[in-house]
Specification:
By secondary structure, this protein is of the alpha/beta class. It has helices spanning about 5-25, 35-55, 60-75, 75-95, 100-120, 130-145, 150-170, 170-175, 180-200, 245-255, 275-285, 300-310, 330-340, 355-365, 380-390, 405-415, 420-430, 475-485, 505-515, and strands at about 230-240, 255-265, 265-275, 290-295, 320-330, 345-350, 370-375, 395-400, 435-440, 445-450, 450-455, 460-465, 465-470, 490-495, 520-525, 535-539.
Length: about 550
C-alpha cells in the first residue's frame, strides 16, 4: 500500500458511504428529522477527498497526513469527529513510510481507536467505538500471521460486521427498535470501500464523473463584481392596509431580481436581490408592520467563499477585548437574541446541519478577543467545537457544553465581562442545568419508541432529552407541556416559534401557556428556526 493506493482507498470509501448515507441515517432510532449520522460521516470524509485530489503523486505519509488533517478540520457531528479520530491513527502509524504492510494497517486502526476512546468522556458499548475496537483487535492478531494488507483488511471487516450485529443487543434502545448502530454501520461501509479499492474495484458515487453534477459550485469561476445586486433581502410584513400585493411585486421587480413574493390574508413574504434593501423595506412598511427582516451582502459572502476555496490563510482578528462569544444557532430571531446578549459571531447550524470543526474555528479566529467562549447549543456539535480548541493557536478557546438553544441563552446571561475566565466558565456551565428545554417537531418516519406508537407526520414533543408525547394536534402537546411546567412551579417561560409557524398560531401557543401557567411570565419571540416548530425554555 503506497501513497497512490491509499488515496484511492479513501476516495473509494468516501464514495461508498455517500451511496449508503441515507440508509445509515434511517438507522437512527429517534424518529425526529435530524437523523444525520450518515450525512455527517460522509461530509467528514469528503473533506479529505478534496485535499487528496489536489496532491500529485503523494507519498504514503503525505496522503495519510492530508487525510487526517482534513478530516479533523472537516469533522461534523459526533460521528464525524469520532471518524476523524479513527483516521488520525493512519497519520501516526504510517509516518515516514513509503509503503504500508498489513502490520502497519493494523497499527493504524489500533492507534485510531485509542485516540477515539480518549476523546469520548463516557464511551458506551454498542457504538462505532465498539465496532472499531473489535475490528482493530482482530486486525492486530491477523497481522502477526500475514503482512498482506488486503488479508488484514478482510479480517478487520469480518470482525467489524460481527461486532455491528451485536450492537443491537448491547444498547437497550437499539434492541427495542431492532436495528444496529448507525455509526458502526458507517465504519463498516468505509472499510469495505477501502477493500474494494485494494482489489481494483474502486467505488464511484453516482454523481461523480465528468458528465455528472458537481458536489458543490466553484465560486471562483465568476468575479465578485459580476454580482449585479448585492443584497439578498428577505422579510415578512403584516397585511394591515388594504393595498394590492401585486403593486409591491411590480415595485420590487424594478428594484432588483430573483423576486419571490407570497401572500395570504395576513402576511406578505418576500425574497429579492437588490442594491437598495432600504427602499424595499420602506415600501413594504406601507402595507403594515414588519415581522422579520434578513439582509445579507452576497458580494461579501462570495469573496469569503472564494478565499476559503483558494486555501488562503484564515483571517485572525487582533484582540480588542478580553472576552469574545461565538454561538451556533439557526434562525434569524434566535441569532438576534444571542447578538443582543453579546455574541460576536454566529455560526449558522444546529439540528440537521451540524457545522464542521473548521467552520467553528473560522468564526473563533474572526472574533477580536483574547479568550473566546463557544456555545455549541446542540449535543451533536459539542465534540466538533472541542476539536477546535487545540487547533486555535492565537486565542484561548473555552467550550461551554450547551446542548440546546435555551441552555446557551441562559448560560450567556450569567456571563460577566468584568469577571475572570475561570469564574465565567464556572458560572455559565453551572447555569446550563437551571433551564428546562422543550421542543416540538415532527416524526420523520413510523417508529415505536419508549412506549409511544409514532407515525410519520405526527407532532413530537420533547422534554429535556426525552420524548414527552406525540399527537396529530399540536395544541394538545402544547397544553400538556404547559401543565407540566405549571406543576413544576416554573416562573419564566420563553417560546421561540419557528419559520413554519405563523405569528397568529404562535400567539395562540403563548396563550395556552399563559392560561395553564398563571403565575409564570410568558415571552413569545420569533426564532425563525427550521425543523423545530417551537423551542421553549422554562426556569
Amino acid at each position: 500500500m503506497d501513497g497512490a493506493a491509499f488515496r484511492r482507498m479513501i476516495l473509494s470509501a468516501a464514495a461508498s458511504i455517500e451511496i449508503h448515507k441515507q440508509q445509515i441515517n434511517e438507522l437512527n432510532v429517534f424518529p425526529v428529522p435530524d437523523g444525520d449520522t450518515g450525512t455527517n460521516m460522509s461530509m467528514t470524509i469528503q473533506t479529505a477527498c478534496a485535499d487528496l485530489r489536489k496532491l500529485e503523486d503523494p507519498t504514503l505519509t503525505k496522503a495519510a497526513d492530508a487525510t487526517s488533517s482534513a478530516m479533523l478540520r472537516g469533522a461534523r457531528g459526533n460521528s464525524g469527529v469520532i471518524l476523524s479520530l479513527l483516521f488520525r491513527g493512519f497519520a501516526k502509524a504510517l509516518k515516514g513510510k513509503t509503503e504500508g504492510t498489513g502490520a502497519d494497517f493494523a497499527a493504524a486502526l489500533n492507534a485510531g481507536v485509542e485516540a477515539a476512546y480518549k476523546a469520548v468522556m463516557k464511551p458506551a458499548e454498542g457504538t462505532i467505538l465498539t465496532v472499531s475496537r473489535l475490528s482493530a483487535k482482530v486486525a492486530a492478531v491477523e497481522a502477526e500471521a500475514s503482512g498482506d494488507v488486503e488479508h488484514v483488511l478482510e479480517c478487520a471487516i469480518s470482525a467489524a460486521r460481527n461486532a455491528l450485529a451485536e450492537t443491537v443487543h448491547q444498547n437497550p434502545v437499539l434492541e427495542k427498535a431492532g436495528v444496529v448502530d448507525a455509526g458502526g454501520m458507517g465504519f463498516c461501509i468505509i472499510l469495505e470501500g477501502m477493500l474494494s479499492s485494494l482489489r481494483g474495484e474502486d467505488v464511484v458515487a453516482p454523481e461523480a464523473g465528468e458528465a455528472g453534477p458537481r458536489e458543490q459550485a466553484d465560486f471562483s469561476e465568476f468575479a465578485t463584481e459580476d454580482i449585479t445586486f448585492a443584497y439578498c433581502t428577505e422579510f415578512i410584513v403584516n397585511r394591515e392596509q388594504d393595498k394590492d400585493p401585486e403593486l409591491l411585486r411590480a415595485f420590487l421587480t424594478e428594484l432588483g431580481d430573483s423576486l419571490v413574493l407570497v401572500d395570504d390574508d395576513e402576511i406578505i413574504k418576500v425574497h429579492v436581490h437588490t442594491n437598495n434593501p432600504g427602499r424595499a423595506i420602506e415600501e413594504a412598511l406601507t402595507y403594515g408592520s414588519l415581522v422579520t427582516v434578513k439582509i445579507e451582502n452576497m458580494r461579501l459572502q462570495h469573496t469569503e467563499k472564494v478565499m476559503n476555496e483558494r486555501d488562503l490563510p484564515p483571517k485572525v482578528a487582533a484582540p480588542e477585548k478580553t472576552f469574545g462569544i461565538v454561538a451556533v444557532c439557526a434562525g434569524a430571531g434566535i441569532a438576534s437574541a444571542f447578538r443582543d446578549l453579546g455574541a460576536d459571531g454566529i455560526i449558522e447550524g444546529g439540528q440537521t446541519m451540524n457545522p464542521s470543526t473548521e467552520d467553528i474555528l473560522r468564526e473563533i479566529n474572526r472574533t477580536p478577543a483574547e479568550i473566546v467562549y463557544v456555545f455549541p447549543n446542540n449535543k451533536n456539535i459539542i465534540m466538533a467545537a472541542e476539536q477546535a480548541v487545540p487547533l486555535c493557536e492565537e486565542k484561548q478557546v473555552i467550550v461551554i457544553p450547551s446542548k440546546t438553544i435555551p441552555q446557551g441563552i441562559t448560560a450567556l446571561l450569567s456571563f460577566d465581562p468584568e469577571g475572570t475566565a475561570e469564574a465565567n466558565t464556572e458560572a455559565m456551565t453551572a447555569a446550563l442545568d437551571t433551564v428546562i428545554t422543550m421542543q416540538i417537531t415532527y416524526a420523520a418516519r413510523d417508529s415505536e419508541y419508549d412506549g409511544f406508537d409514532i407515525h410519520q407526520g405526527d407532532y413530537l414533543a420533547l422534554y429535556g432529552s426525552s420524548l414527552f408525547g406525540t399527537d396529530r394536534n399540536i395544541d394538545k402537546l402544547l397544553t400538556d407541556l404547559a401543565l407540566r411546567i405549571h406543576e413544576e412551579g416554573k416562573e419564566f417561560v420563553t417560546i421561540f416559534y419557528g419559520q413554519d409557524i405563523e405569528e397568529k398560531k404562535a400567539r395562540k401557543a403563548a396563550s395556552i401557556f399563559a392560561k395553564r401557567c398563571p403565575n409564570a411570565e410568558i415571552n413569545l419571540l420569533s426564532g425563525g428556526q427550521p425543523v423545530y416548530y417551537y423551542l421553549i425554555s422554562a426556569e
